[in-house]
Write a structure and sequence with these properties.
By secondary structure, this protein is mostly helical. The chain has 17 helices and eight strands. A two-stranded antiparallel sheet has the order 1-2. The protein has a two-stranded antiparallel ribbon with strand order 3-4. A hairpin with a 5-residue loop joins strand 7 (about 320-325) and strand 8 (about 335-340). The radius of gyration is 22 Å and the shape is globular.
Length: about 425
């Protein structure tokens, strides 16, 4: 083993898990205090409170009910060890009913949004306990499972903290539902949507209407709705097909998304944006355009993927693609077609480019008077997506070999043409 690989293994398996477990877990409570300095931090916040636990229990029960309800199902990609996950395909309806329910509740009980805002620290404390407990359960469940065909579970070389951090099973189920659909989509993503609406209403009630805050929430709302409309497409992404159900993914969706992804909206309640109406309108229009292009990029790939004979037209011309041959884990030869037309011929991950631009634009209504704080999500997303680009490339190189190198010669850029 070369020293460089030994060092990399030390970082990945022994250093990153404990450091990230401590840093990110503590950061959620710090953010709740920093965003709302009118509420002093108290140590008991980490345990939650009765109000916070009621909110959490209500949301989890709501999410489970919608996954238990009979509905159309969607089969995800079959794993290398032969398992085909099945998901509920009622995400768009779940989104609309959830938002409508929040608006009705806030109308019937006008103080609820301010109460959630003021108790955000204890709510995050409760979510943290719930998420860590779930991750521990999933780790124990995987350890006790003896008939798993997943080769990762048969490999005993990984340290315990790495297993807890990365996760063990690829598609675990609890209470009759898929864990990733529950934590990622039906709790994490819907909390992102509901919380930013709650913070917007709380800001209006405490300080009056603010156009910048409204733009911030509207752009995110359009983006999040796009996710739920395309929820079944999400089941083909790396989060589902590569990442395992552990701290990184499940805790991230149950705690990091509601605390960090919503932070600028939470921050803008106390720290009111100061940009004028014209600037807000321009930001909104540019943000809308960025979200549309992000959707358009994904839509092109979805149309190509679902076209049986690949005869779909993109930008008015028949789609061009590269055929690559690969072997499955059982030695069978398969063929994939990598899209070269439309946006996918401009850069390999140009959908990330528009996603980053949208994130910057819904962070910028606060201007630059508050420093880096409103832009934390954008900075994090940039690092996350660049890391994901390299992870995806490594996966594709392992899968397609020379075919992937040929594809990269045809589509030279990753994120920004002529830059990266």
């Amino acid at each position: 083993m070369s020293p460089s690989k030994s060092t990399l293994d030390l970082i990945n398996y022994h250093l990153v898990p404990p450091v990230f477990l401590i840093v990110f877990t503590v950061a959620t409570q710090y953010l709740s205090y920093n965003g709302n300095p009118s509420r002093n931090f108290e140590l008991w916040f980490v345990l939650g409170n009765s109000f916070g636990w009621k909110c959490i229990a209500s949301l989890v029960a709501w999410a489970l009910i919608w996954l238990w309800l009979p509905s159309k199902t969607f089969n995800g990609p079959t794993t290398s060890f032969g398992y085909t996950p099945v998901y509920q395909a009622n995400g768009e309806l779940y989104y609309f009913i959830s938002v409508a329910a929040l608006l009705v509740i806030s109308f019937v009980q006008p103080s609820i949004c301010v109460s959630i805002y003021e108790n955000f620290g204890p709510i995050l404390g409760g979510l943290n306990i719930l998420a860590l407990s779930l991750c521990a359960y999933l780790w124990i469940k995987a350890k006790l499972k003896s008939d798993e065909k997943d080769p990762y579970l048969l490999d005993k070389k990984y340290p315990v903290l790495h297993e807890f951090y990365r996760g063990m099973e690829l598609h675990p189920r609890i209470l009759g539902v898929d864990v990733k659909q529950l934590t990622n989509c039906r709790i994490g993503m819907i909390m992102w949507q509901l919380l930013i609406i709650i913070f917007l209403i709380a800001g209006w009630q405490l300080h009056g209407f603010n156009g910048g805050h409204l733009v911030n929430v509207l752009l995110q709302t359009i983006y999040i709705y796009k996710f739920f409309r395309w929820e079944t497409g999400y089941f083909n992404t790396l989060d589902i097909t590569l990442d395992r159900a552990g701290y990184y993914l499940c805790w991230g969706c149950l705690v990091w998304i509601p605390s960090f992804y919503t932070f600028h909206s939470y921050f803008f309640v106390y720290h009111q944006p100061t940009l004028g109406s014209l600037a807000n309108i321009m930001i909104f229009l540019l943000g809308l355009l960025s979200i549309y292009y992000n959707y358009n990029v994904d839509r092109q790939k979805e149309l190509f993927r679902t076209s049986l004979d690949k005869s779909v037209k993109i930008w008015g011309k028949p789609a061009q693609y590269l055929k690559v041959v690969y072997k499955t884990a059982d030695g069978k030869q398969r063929e994939s077609k990598l899209l070269l037309s439309g946006w996918w011929g401009v850069a390999r991950k140009i959908n990330y480019t528009f996603e980053l631009l949208a994130a910057f634009l819904w962070s910028v209504p606060g201007g630059f008077v508050f420093g880096i704080w409103p832009f934390l999500y954008f900075a994090f997303l940039l690092a996350l997506l660049v890391h994901r680009i390299y992870r995806d490339e490594s996966k594709c190189l392992d899968k397609y070999g020379r075919g992937w190198n040929d594809y990269c010669l045809k589509v030279k850029y990753r994120l920004i043409p002529y830059v990266f």
